[in-house]
Amino acid sequence: MKRLEAHEVPLSKVFSSDYEFVIPDYQRPYTWGEEQAVQLLEDLYEVMAREPGDPYFLGSVVLVKQADSPLSQVIDGQQRLTTLTILLSVLRELTANSDDAGNLDKLIWEPGDTIQDLASRPRLRLRPRDEDFFRKHVQDRGGMEVLAAGSAPENDAQARIVGNVIALRKKLAERPAADRLALAKTIVQRTFLVVVSTSELTSAYRIFSVMNSRGVELSPADIFKSKVIGALPDSSKEKYAGKWEDLEADLDREGFSDLFSHIRMVYMKVRAREQLLLEFESHVLSGFLPGRAADFVDEVLEPYGRAYRDIITCDYQSVPDAGEINRWLRRLHRLDNFDWQAPALWALTHHQFDRDWLIEFLKRLERLGASMLVRRYNTHGRGQRIGQLLRELDAGRGLDSAALELTEDEQGDVIGRLRGEIYTQTAVRKFVLIRLNEVLSDPPVFEHPPKIITVEHVLPQNPRPESEWRQLFTSEQRVHWTHRLANLVLLSRTKNSEAQNYDFVVKKGRYFTSKSGVSNFALTTQVLATPEWTPESLKRRQDELVGLLARTWSLEDRVEVPSEPDELN
Questions:
Q1: Cis peptide before 290, with omega less than 30 degrees from 0?
Q2: Under a CB-based contact definition with an 8 Å cutoff, are residues 453 and 434 in contact?
Q3: What is the Cα–Cα distance from 359 to 347, expressed in whole angstroms?
Q4: Stretch (H or E) spanning 125
Q5: What is the per-residue pLDDT across 318-352, written as a single tens digit (0 to 9) for each?
Q6: Are residues 110 and 122 in contact, defined by beta-carbon separation less than 8 angstroms?
Q7: Bridge partners (DSSP) listed for residue 21
């Protein structure tokens, strides 16, 4: 008979023979960092300063537990239980009084009792891949000395354990022994957890999902994992939990969470209207749960996850000579949004081994993304266009998808905006100039060593009254040319407000070159080779640069442009 119980339990009973906590292998790793661990310590010190007897509720844990056995599978609460064990272990190591240290040790270890047939064991066992490390370096007496000697963690969870041991030890060592003893008493006597236990795993996951959809700090990916792994037979849980966690480790937690948003877009083909938790479950998981949970991992999560790893690392390797595919991925990453990633994900999953198809698709996708960026499509507009593209891809349109193409009006709009005051659009100007610089470079340059890349004016925005600029340009000409493409260059350093106003020859020597006398950017090198900066030279340069971009993105310009850019000498 299924039985659900919920009780407020003091930590003196939580860490006792009543419970033997085990973190199943299919659970996520330990993720609390130093910030959360130190915050827990500070909260407990605050409780310690309150009126005696004032209780502190630390939150809840959800367990699968039979009423007649202490064995407790932790479905939710791993982070608190692990961090509390670290805290108790640090207190034990810092305690000089052997009786107090022994009492703390009983909270960490079940000492065993031959009369009651109780074996000696740790109160908490982490997942198998972290269990030995945690026991050896945290739960065993003297283990922290081994840790201090430089035992290397093997994964992120173990690294967080090490970091939290060091952080808590540092904080606690700063306090007098009397404060540490008072803290131990506060933890044992006044701190409570709400322990929710049920005898059935499916019931525990249902409780977990409800509790965590109402504010407990778990990512949607964690809740999806609980639903998928919870729906599997026990014999498959460990295998598929391993697959899930390997993929999460490859992408890191943030990237892994983003993956689910992109998969949602691939399936729904419209921008999010509700929370990811609701939409992913109703439009994606509903097709697999409960009976096809393994298929979700094998047919959706793994292939899309591998493709997403290739996308975010620009390291696609499924075919020989994949360099051109990765170059297009790097170009797409320069866009100021991630809407392109859902169709790219679809493409790398459905055409994984078709090199030529992928190159042509990503080329057209970059053209589409660039046009929407230049034309300042808003979030809604981008979502509609990408949704249309995904629908056409699913319908088998492939490279003939209408959503990939630009109408004559759209092409003309891009050209018109490129000819306009592009500097006034912050996101647009850097994207366009870096793309233009790549085209001008021989060979093309995709990565720029400088971390800081700025867009600068050649003709200053506010030239001094006595400067040469005011002789070369009328006020109307300055207003017309200052913010246009021809007058802009890339630099690899922050602005110098004084240097910006130098006359042209001085500015080239002092402001546009590096210490070695050259520029890191082909676009800027062109300017260095230009003897004078006048309205006539700007007109020539504007036509050449806009024409070059038009050819790069296959745009039909309504104004005739040179077939090849002239040298600027």
A1: yes
A2: yes
A3: 10
A4: strand 124-125
A5: 999 999 999 999 999 999 999 999 999 999 999 99
A6: yes
A7: 72, 124
